[in-house]
Design goal:
This protein is an alpha/beta fold and about 400 residues long. It has 2 domains: about 140 residues, 3-Layer(aba) Sandwich (Rossmann fold); about 220 residues, Dihydrodipicolinate Reductase, domain 2, CATH 3.30.360.10. It is about 30% helix and about 25% strand. The protein contains 10 helices and 18 strands. The strands form 3 sheets. Strands 17-16-15-14-8-13-12-9-18 form a 9-stranded mixed beta sheet. Strands 1, 2, 3, 4, 5, 6 and 7 form a 7-stranded mixed beta sheet that branches. A hairpin with a 5-residue loop joins strand 15 and strand 16. Helix 4 packs parallel to helix 5 and helix 5 runs antiparallel to helix 10. The mean pLDDT is about 95. This is Gfo/Idh/MocA family oxidoreductase. Keywords: NAD, Oxidoreductase.
Length: about 400
């Protein structure tokens, strides 16, 4: 990092994997100057890595990186790189995260950080030992409506929180012709929808209500086989006709009963959380409903810029009111001037990039961090144990998270 003549701080950025998410991270860094011109930050896209030549070419020609390599170690060894975005497939996350920490690079990594709690803890330990700043791709928590919901709970405006209901329902694998990508292979992905979607939902609950202390879970694999997709080709949205069928090795659906831990803003609240990658109907219905003695609220990513809010008993117009995201909710005003003009998914990543780089510079540390990832992984692992044993399982709150009340 260096200070430019105009007083802005230049931060050298490295990228590992130039797929859709890597492109999104790159755009987020580039758009910081438009959304947050007062931050005094100047991300410099320095070095990208991807084993596919077409993607390394794209990194330089389209995204604007100064250079690109096939080996991610070249990014980690580049002295001009201060921070690294890790956007590789899940099964490489822990390997690259540990390597980034040992190289002394602050890193922004997509979730799940590891194939389960064990790998996630190894990354957390490496980051702690190296003293590097971390940020996790829990993008839904940055929606202005979610930030506002967190405030409502913290200020007691919904009364005592009694229960929560959440869902992460997607249809990206609803078609049985959907390709058997690495996401369905346990050795590559670890668990299935538990790590892919339920981890996001666990983070939403913990960010708004507090740490989850106990879980009871059930899982199901709806499609036992899928047509094989050669590694490195297509995406998990690809459909294959008359392909060679191979077994699906992890779950398509997961459901959990949960209890919020002692000491949280919503201590002892109970609820149900569900995640599915094979739902027919919902496209990306990722949402949370919070119920309290003084009111309730619900939010769905398919209507990201809305929060449905109910007042308490005796309100003149008791029932739900649609509240549009507006200036004063999270960072909404950085992107749009007034309610009704919507933010998009990419904007959530710009907020995530801002929080990450602020923490790197030693400013306000409100970014999701590796301890948040470990906490979510711990809950997911407890759910796996519960589904296997048909018993309740506990999850001990993790220190150093940004969970509500932490």
């Amino acid at each position: 990092m260096r200070t430019r003549a105009d007083g802005t701080t230049e931060i050298g950025v490295g990228l590992i994997s130039v797929g859709w998410m890597g492109q999104l991270h790159s755009r987020a860094y580039a758009n910081l100057k438009y959304a947050y011109p007062d931050l005094g930050l100047a991300p410099r896209l320095v070095h990208a890595a991807d084993p596919a030549p077409a993607r390394t070419d794209e990194a330089v020609r389209v995204l604007g990186y100064e250079r690109a390599s096939a080996d991610y170690h070249d990014v980690l060894n580049d002295p001009d790189v201060d921070v690294v975005s890790i956007c590789a497939p899940n099964f490489l996350h822990s390997e690259i995260g540990i390597a980034a920490a040992r190289a002394g690079k602050h890193f922004w990594i997509e979730k799940p950080v590891g194939r389960g709690e064990h790998e996630t803890r190894a990354v957390a330990d490496a980051a702690k030992e190296a003293g590097v700043v971390t940020s996790i791709g829990f993008n839904y928590r940055h929606a202005p409506a979610i930030e506002y919901l967190r405030e409502l709970v913290a200020e007691g405006r919904l009364g005592r929180i009694t229960n929560v209901r959440g869902q992460m329902f997607a249809d990206y694998s609803a078609d049985p012709r959907g390709a058997l990508s690495w996401r369905f292979v346990r050795g590559l992905a670890g668990n299935g929808v538990l790590g892919d979607l339920m981890g996001h939902l666990v983070d939403l609950v913990q960010y708004t209500l507090g740490p989850i202390g106990e879980v009871s879970a059930v899982t199901s694999t709806v499609y036992a086989e899928r047509p094989e997709l050669p590694m490195g080709t297509g995406t998990h949205f690809a459909l294959i006709e008359n392909g060679d069928m191979k077994p699906v090795e992890n779950e398509d659906y997961a459901g959990m009963l949960v209890r919020v831990a002692d000491g949280a803003p919503a201590a002892h609240a109970v609820g149900t959380l569900e995640a599915s990658r094979v739902s027919v109907g919902p496209r990306a219905s990722y949402g949370i409903e919070v119920y309290g003695t003084g009111g309730s609220a619900h939010w769905d990513f398919e209507r990201m810029n809305e929060l449905h809010l109910s007042g308490g008993l005796g309100a003149e117009n008791q029932g739900y009111t649609r509240v549009m995201a507006r200036p004063g909710m999270g960072d909404f005003n950085r992107f749009q001037p007034g309610a009704g003009t919507s933010m998009g998914y990419d904007d959530l990543k710009v907020i995530e990039a801002k929080k990450f780089l602020q923490a790197v510079l030693g400013r306000e540390a409100i970014n999701s961090n590796i301890q948040d990832a470990l906490s979510a992984a711990q809950v997911v692992s407890a759910a796996e144990r519960s589904a296997e044993t048909r018993t309740w399982q506990s999850s001990t709150p993790v220190e150093g998270t940004t969970a509500a009340g932490a």
